[in-house]
Amino acid sequence: LEEIPPRAGDDTGNILKQGYLEKRNREHGFFGSEWQKRWCVLNRRTFYYYANERSKQPKGNFSIEHYSAQLACHLRKDSRKSCCFELICPGRRTYEFTAPSPAEAKDWVDQIQFLLKGEFDLSSLTIPCDDEDEDETYNDVDSSDSVNTTSHNTTLNQEESNVEMEEDIYEVLPGKQPKPK
């Protein structure tokens, strides 16, 4: 497994989803709680979990590559069972979480599945557009120029109608007479 450098819990760079989840301990002892509240942060490739949202060092992290995410009602027997989901990867540790609500659990699963599908370029986070719009061309510069030109021309035309046009395009300065041709 590659070592992933820790990131601060409040670092907002490339964060796609974050919030409190209950994480099931891999090894829970007699005195320890089976589920512990953790501040969880999902970025483009890594899932981090912290003691709380102010923690600078994660309690743990893992690359989501090759994992799958799914709702998992079987993880709990209590009223929160519809809020559970898990991240599974063959040959690797399974991570189990409980969200504050069933809708939040579904949103976490959807976000992770979206990343795993690779439907966009992970390096730039750009979502590809449909091919249907390729025929349409939009040129904001031309359209705004034509609007400005039209209004400018209208203004000039109004001024021209109020001013008598002279044949000579040169201005005669006071004290200087033009040379005869």
From TrEMBL:
<keyword id="KW-1003">Cell membrane</keyword>
<feature type="region of interest" description="Disordered">
    <location>
        <begin position="133"/>
        <end position="165"/>
    </location>
</feature>
<keyword id="KW-0472">Membrane</keyword>
<keyword id="KW-0963">Cytoplasm</keyword>
<dbReference type="InterPro" id="IPR011993">
    <property type="entry name" value="PH-like_dom_sf"/>
</dbReference>
<dbReference type="GO" id="GO:0005737">
    <property type="term" value="C:cytoplasm"/>
</dbReference>
<feature type="compositionally biased region" description="Acidic residues">
    <location>
        <begin position="133"/>
        <end position="143"/>
    </location>
</feature>
<dbReference type="InterPro" id="IPR001849">
    <property type="entry name" value="PH_domain"/>
</dbReference>
<dbReference type="Pfam" id="PF00169">
    <property type="entry name" value="PH"/>
</dbReference>
<keyword id="KW-0597">Phosphoprotein</keyword>
<dbReference type="GO" id="GO:0005634">
    <property type="term" value="C:nucleus"/>
</dbReference>
<dbReference type="GO" id="GO:0005886">
    <property type="term" value="C:plasma membrane"/>
</dbReference>
<feature type="domain" description="PH">
    <location>
        <begin position="14"/>
        <end position="117"/>
    </location>
</feature>
<keyword id="KW-0539">Nucleus</keyword>
<dbReference type="InterPro" id="IPR037781">
    <property type="entry name" value="SKAP_fam"/>
</dbReference>
<feature type="compositionally biased region" description="Low complexity">
    <location>
        <begin position="144"/>
        <end position="155"/>
    </location>
</feature>
<protein>
    <submittedName>
        <fullName>SKAP1 protein</fullName>
    </submittedName>
</protein>
